[in-house]
UniProtKB/TrEMBL annotation:
It comes from Erpetoichthys calabaricus (Rope fish). Substrate binds at H116. The keyword Transmembrane does not apply. The record marks K83 as: Lowers pKa of active site Tyr. This is Zgc:110366.
Length: 289
């Protein structure tokens, strides 16, 4: 176990526009597939994970408080991201939802708070208006120090362009689906040009990439698993990645990605892979740029 910790202690970070450093590898905690207290404690205590991605929607913020407490890891050593769910969009509700997430997590600040999806739900206001109002509350949460960084998730270029008209703080992060089958390069480039850090979610495409012949061949070549190839690929592209597993042995496997390197030709292969399967969030464009 100590060896893994040593490797993760060297886990690179990605700098946000305000200078904060985000560990490039985090742990996802989506409700899909369930929550495992043991896996989270194991990730923190035994694997050296210091970055947790969660959301009100996942329903596990209170469980995470318990896992963090049990891990014994100090608050200031952790990077905790949570997200505002669509039913809370709006000025007052956003502020309240953030404080409630903090309370459930047992923290007095979040490292990063994201608007989970671009489309809020309100019968009376247009989405752009809701987003602007919501963002104003996010900016205040940032100014008040409740959130050390603020951002968005699943925003397309059009959403970011609209938000630009209304915001005084540019989102620090845009968290979007990113794996070898879904490579929104135009969006990645746009974010970079605006000083927005692009973060990848769903890095294993929930397992769909594991049977791809190119990925399985690379796994054989490097004597690694398909999951490790995908995680390493994201890291080598400089993209923050947050795989989730409820199994301790897989959490460990997903962390063992700092002791090998994909050759440039193999990185390029994955950067140009033709997806063999359509993935999640089907309402979104399929990117393979
Ligand atoms: N902002 C957003 O809208 C979204 C954010 N996210 C975030 O990204 C995180 C990761 O995405 P997620 O949707 O969970 O999916 P992932 O791409 O991380 O895949 C998770 C699935 O892969 C399995 N798995 C994990 N590691 C391995 C391994 N080494 N070998 C084989 N199978 C493995 C898991 O099963 P098992 O548990 O059995 O190991 C689980 O079924 C989320 O948990 C969430 O935090 C995700 C989707 C949308
Ligand atoms: O983060 C996520 C995980 O699951 C949700 C579905 O309930 C998604 O909407 C979301 O993007």
């Amino acid at each position: 176990m100590a060896a893994t910790w040593t490797r993760l202690a060297k886990c690179p970070t990605v700098a946000l526009a305000n200078g904060l450093q985000v560990p490039i590898l985090g742990l996802g905690t989506s409700h899909q597939g369930g929550y495992s207290h043991r896996a989270v404690v194991y990730a923190l205590r035994e694997c050296g994970i210091r970055h947790i991605d969660t959301a009100k929607r996942y329903g596990c913020e209170s469980d995470l408080q318990e896992a963090i407490r049990e891990s014994g890891i100090e608050r200031q050593e952790l990077w905790i991201t949570s997200k505002l769910w669509i039913t809370d969009y709006g000025y007052q509700t956003t502020k309240q939802a953030c404080l409630e997430s903090c309370r459930r997590l047992g923290v007095d600040y979040l490292d990063l708070y994201l608007i989970h999806w671009p489309d809020g739900r309100s019968p009376t206001t247009s989405s752009q208006e809701i987003r602007a109002e919501t963002w104003r509350a996010m900016e205040e949460l940032y100014d008040e120090g409740v959130c050390r960084a603020i951002g968005v998730s699943n925003f397309l270029i059009s959403h970011l362009e609209q938000l630009k008209e209304d915001c005084s703080i540019v989102p620090h992060v845009n968290q979007v689906e990113y794996h070898p089958f879904q490579r929104p390069q135009e969006l990645v480039d746009y974010c970079q040009s605006q000083g927005i850090v692009f973060e990848g979610h769903c890095p294993l495409a929930k397992g769909a990439v594991f049977t791809d012949p190119t990925i399985t061949e690379l796994a054989k070549k490097y004597r690694r698993t398909p999951a490790q190839i995908c995680i390493r690929w994201s890291i080598q592209n400089g993209i923050i990645t947050i795989p989730k597993s409820t199994k301790e042995e897989r959490v460990l496997e997903n962390c063992q990605v700092f002791d090998f390197c994909l050759e440039q030709q193999d990185q390029d292969l994955l950067n140009h892979l033709t997806p063999t399967r359509r993935m999640i969030h089907l309402t979104y464009p399929l990117w393979n740029g």
